[in-house]
């Protein structure tokens, strides 16, 4: 079964911690051992795994992505969101996390983040848990 849930961003660029939603899906599936695939079907959004204990990490990631790929760069794409496409390519559109003993195998400080680069918008996240 593929699980889908919505994420509502409130800013143009934003990292939203979706770890709790993913954990609830793992619990509902009752998978003890397996893999969890997380995917976003959007060209201007992505996924990353990083520290979720200190909010300054999220701020730093967003600030340096903006510095590396500025909103108003020399782009040819006419929709005005070329930077969002590039940032989404840098983060990627999927993540895979191992599941063991019914829990995501994340590091102590790790969380799963939905990366919005062209918001605010309502987006979808798809999750597939595969038992092993």
Automatic annotation (TrEMBL):
SUPFAM superfamilies: YjbQ-like
Pfam families per UniProt: YjbQ (PF01894)
Superkingdom in the source lineage: Bacteria
NCBIfam families in UniProt: TIGR00149_YjbQ
Protein name in UniProt: YjbQ family protein
Protein family per UniProt: Belongs to the UPF0047 family.
